[in-house]
């Protein structure tokens, strides 16, 4: 299936986060989550959502499970809508589940993950992200609202032909912003 127009995001700025920034956002999220919700399990949406999910699971001392829902293959957007690629464990049955992703750009991935958790019999499902776009679905908890291109500390550079380069998607956006 090819990419359609339902996933066209233009950014108005660039924000480069450090690992310290990510940890601060996760600490703030953990405090808010613990004050309002005591999940039995934390589910991270692969690929990038597993990073804050694993951090939150450690901070909150909860079990962690992955799910893979994505528009991407081999790190390239190839679908306009997310597709379930790796299902959620049956262990969510009867549990209070927190689903975590790094961003809610449209909310479609989070909504699909929530549907999957409910199909598997989760008792209660809540959501959290590090960041959210201003016009996106709002998870129950999020760290910051921004329409900027958020540069992740874990994928700013990628290995290509034996050399580390700026991630091509980031470079394309840098180039576009420089032209405008």
Task: Outline the structure in words.
The chain is an alpha/beta fold and 180 residues long. It has a single domain, classed as Rossmann fold, CATH 3.40.50. The protein is built from 4 helices and 12 strands. The protein has helices at 19-36, 50-60, 108-119, 168-179; strands spanning 14-16, 41-46, 63-70, 72-73, 76-77, 83-86, 96-104, 124-132, 141-145, 149-151, 157-160, 163-166. A 6-stranded mixed beta sheet has the order 6-3-2-7-8-9, sandwiched between helices. A hairpin with a 2-residue loop joins strand 4 (72-73) and strand 5. Helix 1 (19-36) crosses helix 2 (50-60). The protein is globular and about 50 Å long. The relative contact order is 0.19. Mean pLDDT is 89; it is low at 1-7.
């Amino acid at each position: 299936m090819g990419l359609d127009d339902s996933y066209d995001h233009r950014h108005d700025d660039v924000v480069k986060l450090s690992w310290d920034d990510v940890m601060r956002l996760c600490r703030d999220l953990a405090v808010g989550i613990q004050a309002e919700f005591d999940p039995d399990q934390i589910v991270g949406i692969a690929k990038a959502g597993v990073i804050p999910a694993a951090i939150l699971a450690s901070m909150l001392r909860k079990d962690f499970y992955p799910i893979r829902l994505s528009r991407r293959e081999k790190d390239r957007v190839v679908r306009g809508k997310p597709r379930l690629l790796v299902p959620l464990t049956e262990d969510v049955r009867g549990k209070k589940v927190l689903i975590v992703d790094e961003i809610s750009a449209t909310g479609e991935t989070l909504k699909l993950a929530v549907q999957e958790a409910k199909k598997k019999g989760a008792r209660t499902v809540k959501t959290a992200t590090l960041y959210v776009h201003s016009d996106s679905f709002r998870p129950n908890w999020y760290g910051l609202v921004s329409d900027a291109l958020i540069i992740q500390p874990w994928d700013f550079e990628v290995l290509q032909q034996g050399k580390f380069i700026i991630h091509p998607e980031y470079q394309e956006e840098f180039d576009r912003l420089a032209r405008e």
